[in-house]
Design goal:
- It is a single chain.
- This protein is mainly β.
- The protein has 2 helices and 18 strands.
- A 9-stranded mixed sheet has the order 1-2-3-4-5-7-9-11-13.
- A hairpin with an 8-residue loop joins strand 2 and strand 3.
- Helix 1 packs antiparallel against helix 2.
């Protein structure tokens, strides 16, 4: 077991802590806050020697983060607010409860917010979003929006945010009605966002910078 910032981290794999983590590998970890299981990360696979090196790095926070979260294929959050990450192709993240922030990478990920007002950002790749209950935000940084799928978008509660660095022609703020068209294709040069569903009352789309949604990588 390790301790980090007052939290307990339980490691599972093939190693003995008597060796000072000099030999063996880690396959799974569970992060506890007190007696509460906060985050479960499965599918990791790194040598315990790498763990020892990360703990002694100039920036151990970032080094440990890379080991624990980045390569996980299953990341499960707690019933409170979590920040969950994975760049593994095929990974699944489930925030469960709380106002969670789920962040993917260049591969194909499935992001499930669960209960609460969640932010889902798959970054690049063909991602699947399921916000769950609450007022959820789906953040897109990939120009090919057709590669991503939102399974449960609620036009009354949810919103879509487009990264202004990618969709630079639209501009910051609430999407102008002239840039939004309900139909199968654009009819003029101002139609930047096409919504093909026939019946809709309204849909909230606004522009923001990536930094306003994707915080520093820390756990």
């Amino acid at each position: 077991m390790l301790q980090h910032d007052g939290n307990d981290i339980v490691l599972k794999g093939s190693f003995t802590d008597e060796l000072g983590f000099a030999e063996g590998s880690v396959k799974k970890f569970v992060l506890f806050k007190g007696d509460t299981k906060m985050i479960v990360s499965k599918g990791v696979d790194f040598a315990t020697a790498d763990l020892a090196a990360a703990a002694k790095a100039d920036d151990p926070e970032e080094a440990l983060f890379a080991l624990f979260f980045i390569q996980a294929d299953t990341v499960i959050g707690s019933l409170s607010t979590d920040h969950l990450y994975s760049i593994t192709n095929g990974a699944e993240m489930n925030g469960r409860g709380g106002d969670d922030h789920l962040f993917g990478g260049a591969g194909k990920q499935t992001l499930k917010g669960g209960n609460g007002n969640d932010t889902l950002d798959g970054w690049r790749g063909k991602d699947t979003y399921k916000g769950g209950s609450g007022e959820d935000t789906f953040f897109f940084t990939d120009r090919k929006l057709k590669t991503d799928t939102i399974k449960d978008f609620s036009h009354k509660d949810d919103q879509i945010i487009l990264d202004d660095a990618v969709f630079s022609a639209i501009g910051l703020g609430q999407l102008n009605t002239n840039s939004f068209r309900i139909g199968k294709k654009a009819t003029d040069d101002d139609d930047h966002v096409i919504y093909s569903k026939k019946a809709v009352d309204y849909i909230t789309i606004r522009m923001a910078t990536a930094e306003s949604i994707r915080p520093n990588s820390q756990f």
